[in-house]
Each structure stands twice: as C-alpha cells, then as structure tokens.
Design a protein that fits this description.
Helices cover 37% and strands 12% of the residues. It is of the alpha/beta class. The protein folds into 2 domains: 154 residues, Alpha-Beta Complex (Protein-Tyrosine Phosphatase, Chain A), CATH 3.90.190; 203 residues, Protein tyrosine phosphatase superfamily (Protein-Tyrosine Phosphatase, Chain A). The strands form 4 sheets. The chain has a 5-stranded mixed beta sheet. Strands 8-9-12-10-11 form a 5-stranded mixed beta sheet. The longest helix is centred in the first third of the chain and has 19 residues. It holds the Pfam family Tc-R-P. InterPro entries: DSPn, Prot-tyrosine_phosphatase-like, PTP, Tyr_Pase_AS, Tyr_Pase_cat, Tyr_Pase_dom, TYR_PHOSPHATASE_DUAL_dom. Its EC number is 3.1.3.48.
Length: 423
C-alpha cells in the first residue's frame, strides 16, 4: 500500500451511472485504470512489484493500494477461490478505511491486482462484494463494472479436484448466493464474527464451519491415535463449540466411522444419526429424504453434519436443504457454501444439485422427471458445457428409479470424482 500514480493509461471518468445505465465497454490492458461506478475508486492491474513502484513514483497524486486478502485462498487441488466470507469482511473494511480516511478525501484511490487470472478473479470478486455491501449494488450491476472491460482475464471458479472442471462457478453466481443469504438474514457484515469462525476452522482440535442458521459442517472426529489417515481431532473436542453454536443433532455421512457414535449421545448429550453416503458420491433420493426428516425433527436445533473432510457429501446435503426450503439455485448454493467453507461440493455433486433444483418433491423425497432432466441436459449443451452432460446423466440415476436413458450409470464409488477421502 502506498501513495502513487499512473501514466494515465485508460483513465476513465468517475461519472456515476444510473442503476439501469450500462457502463461503456472498454478494452483491457495491463496498467489501464478502470472506474468502478463510485466516486474516487478505480481498478487496475500491475505486471510486477517493480512496475508498481515505478507507477507510484510517476504520479504521487493518486493513491494505489492492494490487499493480502486476495491472496489468502489455500487450494486443495486446482481450485483457487472464492475467498471466504471472513476475507470478504476484512477486505470491505480495508477499502472503507481508505475511502473514509481524511487524508485521502481529495485523492483517487486505485486498487491494483497482479495480472494472472487467479489474482484478477479473486480481486474482482472482492471488489464486487465491496460494491454490494457498502454501496448497495446488485450482483448484476457490480459484475457489469468488470464485464465491460473486454478481455479482462477472469475465469470461473472450480471445484477442489484435479479433474476437468465441468461446472464453472462464476463470480455472479457467488454474488447472487451472498445476496440471497443476506436477504434471509444469514449474513450481516456488521455483526459477522470473522475471528470466531477462524478459531473453529482447520484447528488441531476441530475443523468446524457454521454454514447457515440451521447447519454446521465439520470434518470427521477421530479417536484412534494409531490411525494416521486423518488429523487426530477427538470427538470430545467438539462438545464445547457445539454447545455454543446451539447444536442438538449430529449426522455422520461416511460409512468408515473413526469414532464411537455413542460418544456424542451418551457422553455429550447430542442426538446422533447415521446417513451413510458412499465416498466420492452424492446421496440417493431416500437418503436425502432421511436427512431432511432428521432436520425437520430437530426443530429449532442446529444440525452438525460431517463426512470425512466435511466438504463434498456434507455440502451437498446441506445444499439440498437450502435449495428446497429457501429457493437457492444450484450455482447460488455452491457459491455461498464455498464462501462459508472453502472446497464444498465436489465433482458431479455440483450437477446433482442442479437436478435437486429441478426436482419434484413428495414431502422430503426428491424426484427428477424425464422432462426436467432433458431440459437440464439441453441447457448444458446450449451453454457449451458438453463435459457436464454425462455428469448430469450420472447424477440423475440417484434421483430416478428405473431410468430408461442410455449411458446412465450410478455415481456411487466413482473414483474419478475426487481424491479418496476428500468428501
């Protein structure tokens, strides 16, 4: 962060657009400066630290700044974002502090990113979140400030695997998920406890993430110190944080239990349920029904859910509840879940949630019709998502009994979805 300037390449006007005023399209070039639709705030990219230093010296009337938050994402595989909501809140506070600094009131503020696509994508996501949370932009209006920059190297976020990405989660998907969660009262940046979340997440004692007012996701506890496959997070370590979070029920999804189920019930006083879903898979319809019945029976209590890592199967079943009860699209749901717990929902589980969003429900039992399945497949073809078609068809077998469609095969046990033990 430093005081500095720019050679004037591509410097735009700061005229405030109306809500329905589409911003003018401009070409992208490194070191070009682009207005973000609010007074004094701009975006640029720099090719190196040396160039940043040169630019800073060139025109000291501008204030250039960046943020380490855009670099915080820790990948599991080939994933690179999005930044979680704790980072979003910290970033928003950083930008606000510069915008409100009395020493900078007559300066133009230019946020700079590195020029690689991952850095730009995460920076754009964070800036869009700032525009939404601080200035009331809609997701569409925030994204439009960057979509107009022709050839700006933004790429879709992807799942936490080394496989071919078949879904393509966009910044707009993530913003819409955040917007829906905000409208439901799930997220309020003013009271969001980023520090409290960090104390729960990926610690030696436990790996816990509050997801929605109804759900907590966590990695499997392990009580056998001789088992070296997973971190030794003992069951009893979860008692105190679960009490604080209002947990009443615990659901285990993995079949390979690494602790005694009775510990949660007899020792800690939680209701414990087993809803086994095969590793690297998504749940059959009857397991969805059983899971949602458990959630209904828990009343006002919070349900804590885990598989092995607390990412794939855990996120998928929580997503089923979000879609059924709150109207999230699959993409909105996945974007929000990954902002709450990075890496959530993996491989064909993404397409499974697309099907859940089109399901016909009989109580808590989901079912997808031939017409809905064909529509989803047609939409995938039309969008050029050819690799997604087989994934959608495979996921459909879990929601359709006796399918007559050819080339359908069960998703259960498909080792290509992700690395063993990740979901």
């Amino acid at each position: 962060r430093s005081l500095g300037g720019q050679r004037g390449v591509g410097f735009e006007s700061v005229r405030m657009p109306q809500a329905d005023d589409p911003p003018a399209r401009v070409p992208y070039e490194a070191e070009g400066i682009y207005a973000l639709g609010v007074p004094r705030l701009f975006f640029t990219t720099h090719q190196s630290t040396v160039r940043t230093q040169d630019i800073i010296r060139a025109q000291p009337r501008l204030f250039f700044f960046s943020s380490f938050v855009s670099e915080e994402y820790q990948p599991f595989c080939q994933d690179f974002g999005p930044i979680d909501l704790g980072g979003v809140v910290r970033f928003t506070e950083e930008v606000r502090s510069y915008m409100e600094d009395n020493r900078l009131q007559h300066r133009r503020l230019v946020y700079y990113s590195a020029t690689d696509s991952a850095s730009i994508t995460n920076s754009v996501f964070l800036l869009c979140c700032y525009l939404m949370l601080e200035h009331g932009f809609t997701p569409e209006r925030a994204v439009a400030r960057f979509e107009r920059i022709e050839n700006l190297p933004i790429e879709p976020f992807r799942d936490a695997t080394f496989e071919v990405d078949t879904f393509g989660l966009t910044i707009l998907d993530c913003l819409r998920g955040l917007k829906r969660a905000t409208s439901l009262g799930w997220f309020d940046r003013v009271v969001f406890d980023a520090e409290g979340r960090e104390e729960l997440y990926e610690k030696p004692e436990h790996d816990i993430s509050p997801m929605t007012p109804k759900f907590v996701a966590f990695a499997t506890p392990k009580d056998d110190p001789k088992d070296e496959r997973y971190s030794a997070r003992k069951s009893i370590n979860h008692q105190a944080p679960f009490r604080r979070l209002g947990v009443t029920d615990v659901v285990r999804l993995n079949s390979d239990a690494l602790y005694r189920d009775s510990v949660f019930e007899q020792t800690m006083g939680f209701k414990h349920h087993v809803v086994e879903v095969p590793d690297c898979s998504a749940p059959p319809a009857r397991q969805v029904e059983r899971f949602l019945n458990i959630c209904d029976d828990s009343g006002e209590g919070v349900v804590a859910v885990h598989c092995l890592a607390g990412l794939g199967r855990t996120g998928t079943l929580i997503g089923c509840h979000m879609i059924k009860h709150y109207g999230f699209t699959a993409a909105e749901c996945i974007g929000y879940l990954r902002a709450m717990r990075p890496g959530s929902v993996i491989g064909r589980q993404q397409h499974y949630l697309e099907l859940i969003a089109e399901c016909e429900w009989k109580g808590n039992l989901p079912g997808v019709s031939d017409e809905a399945l064909q529509k989803i497949i047609k939409d995938a073809w039309s969008a050029g998502r050819n690799a997604a078609v087989q994934c959608i068809s495979q996921a459909a077998t879990l929601l359709r009994a006796g399918s007559n469609l050819s080339a359908l095969e069960t998703l259960s046990g498909d080792e290509d979805v992700e690395e063993e033990g990740a979901a």
